[in-house]
Amino acid sequence: MSGTPAKPHVGRLVSLLAMAAIAPAPGCCGLARYLCGPDESVWVQESYGTPEQAVATFREAVRRADAEILQRCLGEAFKRRTGLVGVLEAELAWRKIEDEVPGLHVLGYASIQSIEITAPDRAVARLALDGNRVELGLVRQPYWEVRWNPTEDIEDLERDGRYVSTAREILGTGASPDGLGTSISLRIPTLDGTIDRADQVEFAGFGQEWKIDAIGQPADG
After folding, report:
1. How many Cα atoms are found within 13 Å in the side-chain-facing hemisphere of 203?
2. Over 50: is that where the pLDDT of 14 sits?
3. How many Cα neighbours within 13 Å face the side chain of 3?
4. Which of 40-44, 149-153, 217-221 ranks highest by mean pLDDT?
């Protein structure tokens, strides 16, 4: 990693009310998009595998006021800063985010100007709408997941998984003992349940997802 990743100014959250006076999109109610409410066109696929996919999912979620998907779009650090950690009701979380970013769903209509990888686990997306510019900071979040059968009933499936700060916390790599390949080990810190036998494990894995870490104005205004 070279240098410090460029990040939006988290403390200067954008007031999107100024974006309301724009031409309505096809199918809109005839007023500004801000007054039209959630969009009901065909959904894009929900995905967080790349910064582009994460931004596309986020834009769809805010355009439709889909509180549950919006929660999944946000990084753990963003949730902590906005008091969303421990919030179980999606609608309550949506209202809290709307308080932070007035006119939130208008952002769903902003065009993507660029998406730049600034570090292996950081990216910045630049959006624009009617002359207003917004930056989305993104972070790549590692996670682990395990699914297992606690009983002989194959339909009885339990699941656990969590985000971690770095891949090194749970993932190890090295040469295999016979020297013929690569050994990859996964260490689960705490599991909500007990696995007695290896054949109970349906799936055990590691992954990384891109999530929204900040919403703000560009540093140059």
Report:
1. 12
2. no
3. 7
4. 149-153
Residues contacting 93, CB < 8 A, separation 6+: 67, 70, 71, 84, 87
Quote the pLDDT of residue 17.
Answer: 44
Q: What is the largest CA-CA distance in the chain?
A: 69
CB 44 within 8 A of CB 56: yes
Closest by Cα among 68, 71, 58 to 112 = 58
Helix (H) or strand (E) holding 184: strand 182-186
Residues 57 and 46: beta-carbon distance below 8 Å: yes
Rounded Cα distance, 171 and 147, in Å = 18
| % helix, strand, coil for the chain, step of 5 | 25, 30, 45
What pLDDT shows up at residue 38? 61
Between 33 and 205, residue with greater pLDDT: 205
Q: Using the predicted structure, report yes or no on whether residue 27 has a pLDDT greater than 50.
A: no
pTM (two decimals): 0.74
Q: Which residues are CB-contacts of 12 (< 8 A; sequence separation ≥ 6)?
A: 216, 217
Residue 37: predicted pLDDT: 60
Residue identified by tokens 């810190």 is: 189
